[in-house]
User: Fold these one by one.
Assistant:
Number 1:
Amino acid sequence: MAVTTRFPVPGSGPAPVLQTGGMTLPAQASLWSDAWRRLRRNRMALISTVFLVLLVAVALISTVWTPFRMSAIGVTETYAPPSSAHLLGADELGRDILSRLMVGAQVSLIVGVGTQLLVLAIGVPIGLLAGYYRGPLDSVVTFVISVFYGIPDVLVAMIMVFLLGPSLANIIIAIVATRWMDMARLVRGQAMSLREREFVEAGRAAGARPPRMLFGHILPNALGPIIVQATLGVPAAILFEAFLSFLGVGVQPPTPSWGSMASEGVAAIQYAPHMVIAPSIALSLTLMAFNFLGDGLRDALDPRSRR
Amino acid sequence: MITRGMLAYIAQRIVLIGFTVLVVSSIVFLGIHRLPGDALFSEKLRGSAYTALLHHYGLDQPLYVQYKDFVVGVVTRGDLGESLVNRGLKITPLVVHELGVSAEVGGLALIFTIGLGLVLGVFAAVRQNTWLDYLLTTTSVIGYSMPNFVIAAFLILLFGVWLQNVTGGTFYYQLGGWKGDLGQMWLPAFALGFPYASIVARLTRASMLEVIRQDYIRTARAKGLHESVILIRHALRNALIPVITILGPLVIGIITGSVVIENFFGIPGLGHEFAQSILNRDYAIVIGVFTMYAALVGAANLMVDLAYVVIDPRIRY
């Protein structure tokens, strides 16, 4: 996300504007450093960050090297239990599970981060416009959001993948279609409360144009909740993809996804439990790390929720 | 408690639900009819048998006539049509029956979710910043980080494979029907509700912490009331209000979660039908189940909004 944090410093405005700017500026600057200080003290968030960095490294490494080719069939016996040659054993086609797990990390990260980037690109502008301008635009947006919330998300995503065809890009589109409202609603609420604040009024009075108002004044001040929401949206998207793949409408073979690996493992749960355990643990740990990090960010960025 | 304004509000919401259901089923109807091939394509029928079947389902008519017939059938008779795969099987009674099965498991999951979540949340709040609190808050993050199919897989592994001598490995078979065996139902209900129990616990903890610092709680203590009376009668009732706000997403989560869990445990409910009808390419049932789900979610949201009024008399519509 390439958003530079600009604080509402009015240029050559009249005196009262300068005063308001002067009042918000120190509070703003200390919010970020204060947040960083608090985040560093949160042990679970730190451990999670380390885990996620390692996960990204594994995903990057797996683009050039895996212990075995992820789609190579019969590198060992089918359903082979974990051994020193195949640390996590083999699946029903004798493929190395560790290699598949590593490639699966790519899928999960692409879906998780890609979805949230798109959700930001769609939800933030819609939320800003609806919350800042109110009126008929807001009514339409609110209605569309409530219609989208009225339909169970898994079903929307399933029907979309069903209609568009299962590919990684379509899965991301389908998940965005069910998740953009969270961001739009959050940003709308933030914009609605921020537009009543004095510094925004001062900006308007100083003659700032709408784009500058929205992206220079409203957005930077709503950045904290947006970051938290986006971070917590990543595990939700990863979980969603695993769901779809588990049901067979997600990433298609031979590309491994942790969800489809778990689903294959369930079929063999009686005689090869390692097949379901490995992807399940990878998935759970990743989701946990993102959730702990998101919680840590929330505690750090929202002083009211301090323990 | 029931005022004229509230009745008007309910009526307004019901109209909105009806509208949403219509929009959803229309989107699914038109979307599915855009797919290449036709519903009977895979049967390799020819000649008069094929045209007769097309006529039977009204598929020989132009799309707008089909759509009109569908909408009229749904609105006037609640008729969702007939299965394309199992000839003669009416969809409305089918999905209504399956809804009953799903409601049984989902209801149990909901009771379990709220019960466990409230108890854990209250405990964590009362013992704030002790090891119990840290244990419970950390466990709750782990709880909602575990996809329900992972929980289900581990439960099956534990009870169906590793403890097979104890359970006989048959704990999840022959489930469903209106008189489904409760003893067989708690496992799917647990898998369905556990992630949400963690969320309820977190919310309960947070709102309890806010409430127990307030003056009226101190007054209650000063009056010499027993601590459990204070917690349950005074604090919990007010702490429940934020918790109720997630009841809507919770119910929807359990409804969608049931798609996975019902397939996992072989429960013949609505979620099972949904996945099966997509796999069978039985478009008529796909549309029917979608319509049912849209109505269900609308009704659930309305119930939740009405529950606010019961819990918090300050809320009026």
Note: DSSP finds ten helices and no strands in chain A.
Number 2:
Amino acid sequence: MTLIRAHRPQIGLSVVLAVYWVPVLVGVRWGVWAGGDPVEVARSIGMAIGQDFLELPMTTLALAPFVLAASVAAILALRQHATRPHEGFVADGLTLLFGLPYLVWGLYLALVYVVFIAQCALLRHGSCFL
Amino acid sequence: MRSALTVVGLSFAIALAFVVVADRGPTGSIGGAPFANLHGGLPQGLEAYRNQVQGTRGGGLGEGTFEWSAETPDPAATVLAFYDQTIDRALWDVIAVGEQTMSFSYRPNARVRGGVRTVDTGRSTFLVVWVTDLSLPSGFPATFPGGYRARPIGAARSDGTGYELRWDIDGNLDSGRFIDDFAHVLTDAGWDVVTLTTTGATPGLTCRSRSAPSLTCAVTTSYELDTTKSTGIVYSVHGSYVATVRLDGLSGR
């Protein structure tokens, strides 16, 4: 527990960065499936990033609570005025830099989803499908 | 530096675990040539038709199957002449070029058949270049073409006089459409279609080779239920259109 607490900034940053690795790894999987030569893998990574990036919070929904927790912990740590190691300060800053856009975008997508469902329920008598 | 590497490694490991557990992306492999490493293009030795109507290009790639389609203002004869001239004959063995279709096989792997299918609407022509691994056995007559959107089911059976193949033809609208199309393919490839039934529950045809009349074929179709995939209440069973292709008269050749 002490070890985790000591490395909390690095673990938080790792969780946040993990969501950005997902389209890359999905692209690698497609590239290997489609033949596996370096050109095919690179092309598949490019396509996976292009197609999945805007839906990243949806495709990595299971990781979203961890990103939220890491971001909240980073905010709380950055608000403290106690002297902290430089590394932890940088890690928390990067956690917010990558975590907040992901969370804000996920919130926007969730809002669009809720509005869509509400509109369908009210105006179309529940006849819409996603 | 060490800390940065730890973060990169740990984030990669978390993402890898997520991708595997959540089953993101495909597993397995598309297979070998001519389907692998296309880089978004066509299999080696085949070209995209140049005079396309803008925005009509499409296609698909699956395990052992490839399809590329487009619309062109050119007539079907021009399309087929283009492929007759441009196909790399070192890789592809052209079985026949007819009025509506062209058929070929892949020289390095005789299991693979392909073709160009055209539909002339009068104002434009829809064309499809397709290649499928039909899992044809060695010794299978090279002159017998493959069917569009036909996928092999199991291994081909052979006896003293011929072969029996089973194809999943569910990618076609219905079995009648498949039989009608395949009759054109056979005619273009040098086979006489002796009988043809495109309506009813079990469309089918019989054919005879023009160059070797002892070679005959019988194609029958049926809708087969798959009881292993029974789910739900309304659609309690699933099924697919299946073609059984019987080739006879090989012993007399």
Note: The two ends of chain B are 74 Å apart (CA to CA).
Number 3:
Amino acid sequence: MSMHSNLLVAAALLFATGAAAETPGLGKSVTEADLALWDISIGPDGAGLPPGSGTPTQGKAVYEQKCELCHGKEGAGGRNATLVSTKDRTVTNYVPHATTIFDFTRRAMPWQQPKTLTADETYGVTAYLLALAKIIGENDVMNAETLPKVRMPNRDGFVSKYPEKR
Amino acid sequence: MSISKRSDLESLEAVAGNGLINRRMLLGRGIALAGATTASASATLTSAGAEPLPVDPWSLAVGSPIPLYETPAKYEKHVVRTLTNPNHEPRTSNARTPHHLLNGTITPNGLHFVVSRTGFPDIDPAKHRLVIHGLVKQPKIFDLETLARYPMESRICFVECGGNSGPLYNKDPIQANVQAIHGLVSCSEWTGVRLSTLLEETGIDPKAKWFLAEGADAPSMNRSIPLAKALDDAMIALYQNGERINPSQGYPMRLLVPGYEGNMNVKWLHRIKLIESPVMAINETMQYTMRIAGQKSWQFYFPQEVKSFVTHPSPGLTLKGPGFYEISGLAYSGNGRISRVMVSADGGKSWAQAALQDPVLSKALTRFRMPWRWDGQPVVLQSRAWDEAGNVQPTRAQIAAERGEPRVNVPVTAFPMGHMNVITSWGIDGKGEVKHVYA
């Protein structure tokens, strides 16, 4: 093989490798600090939970003002989902992680004004629902320490279909 | 016409019960049949009277001006989605695709199904951003203008809600049409940037095993998805059937995870975070998990498994007397291409292989067609699909054995069971009226 064709092969290989790995490289670098207001995800281990705290009593006041219209008295359901009941899928018998209640309430509720509850209010509403479901005591304080430790009754009620199913 | 009933699947191509016609035989006779049709049509006209056909008024007047953006003809106003929350009350809205009024495989953008928790947000495309962070080497942020410069690809694939066809798990056959039962699946050509391309740019921390995808809508809907899917065929979709994605489909960008359950194709996508394990979001715990009698609930059930249903005829499309009809419908699998669709006109006693309309694409709706001569007697139509991965659409008995017997009846808008890919049966009575039945 001539040097010329060797060079051609090398150039072709280089091009192929380069093309496979190449991106336009136009994304702007950001830091996690830049994303503080965006990164609202919370893991079941409590990672991402904000400072603050709330009790069932504090949460009851928030619930009655901002949640009851749709979810009914004491979470019994109304024009929207039942939250506390031994029937249906609820906090009481279905949700496997208490952190999910906090996460969803913070990101999506109240329906008309999502992301307006303070961390304390969100901990409070979460505590209120957990107490109504008799999962925590009426005076238990929910915060970044205690919430992930709450043992939900249906914690072991799931089996993953991934990756069993193709 | 004689009907042979054979149980051997291999021999069913010839003919099956209640008038299913060998599609190859029909192709071979095409010219003869066409000739017969012409002859019979001219005979009818001749006998209708001496008057020649009039020149129609639209042939005598100037047409309407061509609009900037065209909508279907005014005579097609009935071809619309059905809405579960038309007054926008504080709850989820569903819009269903009218498959009984469409043909082909691509869903028009305005008829694509929707499941939305709070309607669609009004996102300024000039201000929308997508951030990729978490277990990456360098977090990056992309705006729409930037993404438009990346290498793009197009692929045709379906998106289906995990709850589609749920009413088939009712104890008794629900009296509803294709749109109500199967309307939460649609198919589009999606164009965008591979997620793997963007991840090359951010780098991946080896600890990352999943990624979280989150929307910029009011409830910031989010899902945990295996990272393997990001490296396989996940796409940041910017275009739907050639134009920018519709507002309720995620304008200006959505995640597309071909074949996976609908809500994982996160709309209004603005954040991807690489993580070690699932965050246990509401949509992977409370919602989109399946309670199974006597077992633990099923979680992280991602692929929409092989499924088919007959769209023509179907409830509401009454047959106009005995004679020739084309049975047609849709088949699809989240695990690859459709390899075979069998059709029965006698409630599953005998089956014949349907023709698959080209192109047959992986994780896309595939149209099947079956020639049929109806003799006017009551029949039960069914279709059953196979995919290239070897999966076969289950019977009602198989679903009941796996998940328990259905015990209750719920309204057609409820979701008694997820991932219902069971065979659908249409019963046709002597008057040609089509009803949903169990067979």
Note: Chain B has a mean pLDDT of 92.
